[in-house]
UniProtKB/TrEMBL annotation:
Residues 28-61 are annotated as: Disordered. CDD domains: SCO. Disulfide bonds join C100-C104. Pfam families: SCO1-SenC (PF02630). One of its GO terms (molecular function) is metal ion binding. Keywords: Copper, Disulfide bond, Metal-binding. Residues 62-225 form the Thioredoxin domain. Belongs to the SCO1/2 family. This is Uncharacterized protein SCO1/SenC/PrrC.
Amino acid sequence: MRKLWWVGLAVLVLLAAGSWWFGTRAGSDQPGGPGAGPAGTPAPSSGQGTAGTNNGFKGMVLQNPREAPDFELKAADGSTFKLSDQRGKVVLLFFGYTNCPDVCPATMAVWKELGKRVKDRADDVRMVFITVDPERDTPKRLREYLPKYGEHIVGLTGTQEQLKPVWDAYSVKPERVEMPDSALKYAMAHPAQVYLIDPEGKIRLLYPLGYKAEDIEHDIRLLLEQRQNRG
């Protein structure tokens, strides 16, 4: 139990440490109440705040959106996924692993609900899960794990050498935590936020742990509406 508590704490520390790259910090780790640094503006949780906050977005807005670093990895189904090929779509990006006891299943549960909510825009949305545990997260393992949360989730894996440049590009620093008394043997501490990449390929929003599917749905539809209005 103490080991899992430590892993959970490490996840929150990594969340705060990783988000500086995007010009913001995560702040509070309480669900529905993320804080932000000078360059990032927090959104109210569902049902809170006033209309127009963050230009109408619910997520944590990056005041100076940066182009998302491109990458190419193998998907669990054997196909090749290249981020730059997704231009014109909204991409949600999460770094996790299938043996994660808390953050990952919580995030995937939100994505499961989100998949139902944006089913009518399925061609315009990609939800991408990149492993931080390539030793255990083989393509077969991802094919077993992710469909529980929906066929719409794309699972990406590879070797340590293939994944590390992607982790580095997004300031993701997975840390292995040995648990010799557990059947799992080890856990991986990793950031807990979801990155939203807009149709122009820029990282526009962050969602620390605690955001709801309805919040993310709202932002996806707003971005797609803005794209349509621009023609």
